[in-house]
Amino acid sequence: EVQLVESGGALVQPGGSLRLSCVGSGFTFRSHGMTWVRQTPEKGLEWVAGLSGTAATTYYADSVRGRFTISRDNSKNTLYLQMNSLRVEDTALYYCARVSSGVAVAAPINSWGQGTQVTVSS
Amino acid sequence: DIVLTQSPDSLALSLGERATITCKSSQSVLFKSDKKNYLAWYQQKPGQSPKLLISWASTRESGVPDRFSGSGSGTDFTLTISSLQAEDVAVYFCQQCYDSPVTFGQGTRLEL
Lengths: 122, 112
Known about the structure:
heterodimer; A: 11 strands; 51% strand; globular; B: mainly beta; four-stranded antiparallel beta sheet
């Protein structure tokens, strides 16, 4: 059974940093692109960043480019999202999700974690 | 960015009725070299994560009931639930993975 378990969400002040982690199991981690998607009631689902299985290619939403960094450690079956210079508008439930092939973005997302809440507030 | 616009925003139907949700893309998501539409549909039930229902516009995922079907090409797509069941109450999203950034429709809330 495919499992994705996120951690690292927290309450943080504007301008602060946070690192999210996601451990994958039940599949060959390095064979799949991975992505972070966030969700709020106001904006719905918003794709944040994607990374290919080999980590050779990365893509970011304009809203986070230069502030967030997606990375992975295939030896640990773990995906990361380093979030710097956090803003109030980054408040959301952050999902770790598996792309159905090894590419970063050009395939559907076929597994999702349960999400980890990030709240940016003073 | 590719904008996906779903309609309607919400839909209230009775058990056994047909549900039709449309998703219109601001540009074509048909990749000519492989003739695939890079369009997927997801279902999100209350308190749960999204679940992939349909990929490549019309390919139903394993385990998805055959009352769910997807159609369309280019810029216009439809998700149809042929006979609504109580467990189909959810929010449905379309998504394009043709180009970065990946984008989602705003969602359609389906209620009984």
